[in-house]
Description:
By secondary structure, the protein is an alpha/beta fold. It is 30% helix and 15% strand. Zinc ion is lined by residues 18, 41, 158.
Amino acid sequence: MHLPPAGRDIPLVLDSPHSGTDYPADFGYACDFALIRKSEDTHVDALFAHAPSLGAPLLAARFPRAYIDPNRSPLDIDPELIDGVWPGQIVPGEKTKLGLGLIWRKIKAGTPVYARKLTVDEVWKRIDECYLPYHAELQRLTDRAYARWGRVYHINCHSMPAVGDRETSADGESVRPDFAIGDRDGTTCDPAYTKFTVDFLLAKGYDARANDPYKGVELVRRHGRPAEKRHAIQIEVNRRLYMDEETRERNAEFAKTKAVLDAYLDALAGWIAKR
Ligand SMILES: [Zn+2]
C-alpha cells in the first residue's frame, strides 16, 4: 500500500488517496464506467514517486475514490444512499447534499452512481476494509516521523480537472490554475510551508495559487496541527499537465511535470532539514 523509504528517513510523509484503480467486484455501480473513472486522481502516485528515494514514505490507496473517499469524515454518511437507517452518528459534509459524501451517491449532477441503495453492511465493509486501514497507516507513518524528529510535514497529493464542473465544483465551470496548494486558509500548517511550495512553482513559471480553488478537506484537517509541529498541505496538480482526461493515459507533459515535482521534493527536503 505504500513505498517505504530506502534506508533513510526525513520528517516528510506523502499520501495519494484518490489514485487507486483496483475496482472491487462488489462495487455494483450502475452508471457509465468512464464517468466513475473521472473521479480518480489517476497517476498522482506516479507523479510523486520520487519521495521514497529521499526518505519520505508515500502512501497510495489502491481502492478507487468512487468506492469510498478517504478524504471525507467517516461520519459523512449520506442518508439517501442507505437502505434503511444508519445505526450510528451522521454528520453530513457540505458536498453530501450534492451526493459527494464518504460514499458518492451521484457521479455528477443528475447522474446516480447506483440503481439501488446500499445496505448498512455494505457501507460498513467499505469503511472497515478500505477507509480505516488507510487512515491507520497514514497515522502510523506521520506518528513514526514525529516520534523521531519532533515535527512532521505532510503532503496530501491530488489532481484536478482542467475545468471545473458547473454543478458540483465550488468554482463552477472555471479554468483551473496549474497547481492549487491548500492549507484550509492557513490553519493546517506553518504559512511558510505553503509559501515555499507556491513560490517554488511560481519560479518554475507555473500558475500556482493558495487555497484557490481548493482549500483541502479531511486529510489535511486531520493531520495539520501546526501548534504541535504537524504541518499538512494539499497539492492539486492540474490534470492537463500530465494526462489526457478522456483516455486517462499519461500525456507528453507527464515527464516534465514529474521532473518539476522531483525538483520540488528535493528542495523541500533541504528546506525541512533547516527548520
Ligand atoms: Zn483528489
